[in-house]
Amino acid sequence: MSSAVLTSLEEFLKRYTIPSDEVRFFSRSHIFIAFRAYLTDVKPHEIVTMDFETFTLQLNKVAEDLQLNTKKMGKTTYFEFHMNNTTLPATEITNTTTPAGDEEKINIQDINIFLCCKLCCGYLVDATTITECLHSFCKSCILKHFQLHNSCPICGVVVHNTTPVSGLKPDIVLQDIVNKLLPGIPTGELHHFAEFEEAAALNGKHNYHSVLKPYRPCNIYLQWVGPDVGSIQAIDLIHKYIRLPDHATVAHISQFVCNKLEQMEWVLPQEAKCFIQSGGVTLPPFFTLRNIYENSLDFESKNGFLILEYDFKSSLQS
């Protein structure tokens, strides 16, 4: 961390140490995230590389020089800050749970703890949750962590003795919240990954596409082709709207339809095989949803949902 950044850290901390009526305590990770946002605001054209461990050492030194009060809860040290009107303007969001006409605005920094990854201290990208303890991280961050460890980096619970990756699940709802509050996150990540892939291709390095690339959630509207077109009698699903990652294949959708009809106790002939269509065109089972968009096969849409139809034909037909 350069001396210029350290000077900025001292200036940043001084903004929050002016006496006022409201006192709050923040952990090192909270301060790290807020400080990065501060640098982005005051130095938008400057790229600053920060290491969290080095930042922690310098934070302790500057906090001691400024005589900031601290308190310890468990193994975590919290630093005292005095909130005042001279602090940085923060992104505001509206609390929609309050009665109409009585909206409450809060700073997004107040909920950063729920939106940030505890490993990289950045906003969540491809939010992924450990099923054992429900702690969430960036997908790439937790995959790197599990290369060396088999436990949660926050609570220490053992996820799996041999294959901890099996205890991970994409948290689409949490990622949707992050994307709604910070719409630049998904666009920026896809742009950065495209640059990374281009540089890797030029250097002849391994392609990490299937592991690290942020997925694009796809909204699908599934419907039966109908009795006039259908080869084998079927019915519409109860829930026609689904959301899938863009690497899901047509074969996955076919299996999903069969499973749902089975749950609805609809009996299909043993030789019936499910085919997925888009605009009357039967899609290859190995096609991913990304392939459908890349090949301009998304012929029909409804309120932002890609319309796909399913039909059943006999596998005995030549």
UniProtKB/TrEMBL annotation:
Annotated GO biological process: negative regulation of transcription by RNA polymerase II
Q: Which organism is it from?
A: Phallusia mammillata
- Indicate whether Metal-binding appears among the record's keywords: yes
State the organism's lineage: Eukaryota, Metazoa, Chordata, Tunicata, Ascidiacea
Q: What is the name of the protein in this document?
A: Polycomb group RING finger protein 1
Q: Which residues form the RING-type domain?
A: 117-155
Q: What UniProt keywords apply to this chain's record, in alphabetical order?
A: Metal-binding, Zinc, Zinc-finger
The record, for InterPro entries, names:
Znf_RING, Znf_RING/FYVE/PHD, Znf_RING_CS
Q: Which SUPFAM superfamilies does UniProt cross-reference here?
A: RING/U-box (SSF57850)
One GO cellular component term, please give it: PRC1 complex
**Pfam families this protein is in?**
zf-C3HC4_2
